[in-house]
Write a structure and sequence with these properties.
about 350 residues, Chitinase A, domain 3, single chain, about 15% strand, Triger factor/SurA peptide-binding fold, alpha+beta, 2 domains, 4-stranded antiparallel sheet, 13 helices, 7 strands
């Protein structure tokens, strides 16, 4: 690296991608989890160790619970066990890779620039606490995480990304020929599955508080009739019992033909920018906001845009391959044990 004390200094200000990676990491996912004391024993079960450092089921689900929620509550049928198992298995391998990268960072005596950690904390505060660090601290404590633990996680994530940038990203490139060929292939692939972008609010059934829950569902139903995305997102943050609540209920894009029947029926004829609900299901009441819809037929892309997207896709693939090769060397020197 260029400076043993401060690796990859030129990347300190490149926080855009790191912010997205970090916010999608176990940190924010953990803060959005619904804690079940009765399940703690199984959540704390050890799935693997890396040089004696344990990885628990909780560590894995903290990074996968939103994807699992999308599969189990949005798509039709019951949650496919095989798909969820694959998501968790892939997440476990990613955690192992991250632990190895972090250990190598520390072994080399590198340091994370303090300003990088502060900017990442600011990014998190902006994303989930309206830019207020005091509010962020309150949210962290409410979800059994101190602000110092939050800071340590931010520092660890920054260290991992600095390692990836230095050893897996710095020397990769996409040739003009590669970019042109990928752009041409992209233009030829003009048909995809119809998709919808959804925000969701979920209020679970509660036999002991049935009356209060019914009143809450009624009030939310009145508010969502205003068909305002910001209001819907705020309601999700305040009342939704789903793991996507901290993100304003945003589930992202899902394939329309895989939606569970209740959702597919509710969305029939619904215009983009409109809300619908309550949708009654065996587990509780849902409200949906249709934030976007794609027919599956893509409009022709501008040449410059197509080339830019092709270049980014190629670099991402090469970065992933370079990381896999680099971590493979670290894995050969580590003692990794699985307990499954």
């Amino acid at each position: 690296m260029h400076d043993p004390g401060h690796p990859a200094q030129t990347n300190v200000n490149n926080l855009g991608k790191m912010k997205k990676i970090f916010l999608a990491s176990a940190l924010v996912s953990t803060m959005s989890m619904v804690w079940d004391i009765g399940a703690q024993s199984s959540l704390n079960s050890i799935l693997a160790t890396v040089d004696g450092d344990p990885i628990t089921l909780l560590d894995v689900i903290s990074g996968t619970n939103e994807r699992e929620e999308r599969i189990s509550s949005v798509y039709s049928g019951s949650a496919p066990a095989g798909e969820i198992e694959k998501i968790r298995r892939d997440a476990l391998e990613e955690i192992i890779d991250d632990k190895l990268l972090l250990a190598e960072f520390k072994r080399r005596g590198y340091k994370v620039p303090p300003q990088m950690v502060e900017r990442m904390i600011d990014s998190i505060a902006s994303e989930i606490a309206e830019g207020d660090r005091r509010r962020l601290s309150e949210l962290a404590e409410k979800n059994k995480m101190s602000i110092e633990k939050l800071r340590r996680k931010a520092e660890d994530r920054a260290a991992i990304e600095l390692m990836v940038n230095e050893f897996c990203s710095r020397h990769i490139s996409a040739s003009p020929k590669e970019v042109r060929e990928r752009a041409s292939m992209s233009k030829a692939a003009g048909i995809g599955a119809p998709k919808v972008e959804l925000l969701v609010i979920f209020i679970g059934k509660d036999a002991e508080g049935e009356t209060a829950k019914a009143e809450l569902v009624r009030k939310i139903g009145e508010d969502v009739k205003r068909n305002n995305k910001n209001i819907f997102a705020t309601l999700a943050k305040l009342y939704s019992e789903s793991n996507s609540a901290s993100k304003g209920g945003n589930l992202g894009w899902v394939e329309k033909d895989k939606l569970r029947p209740e959702f597919a029926k509710a969305l029939e004829g619904l215009d983009t920018g409109k809300a619908v609900g309550p949708i009654e299901t065996p587990e509780g009441s849902y409200f949906l906001f249709l934030a976007g819809a794609e027919s599956g037929t893509r409009a022709p892309k501008d040449d410059a845009l197509a080339l830019d997207e092709a270049r980014k896709a190629i670099l991402d693939e090469k970065r992933t391959a370079a990381k896999r090769d680099f971590v493979s060397g670290l894995r050969k020197k580590a003692i990794i044990r699985y307990f499954q």
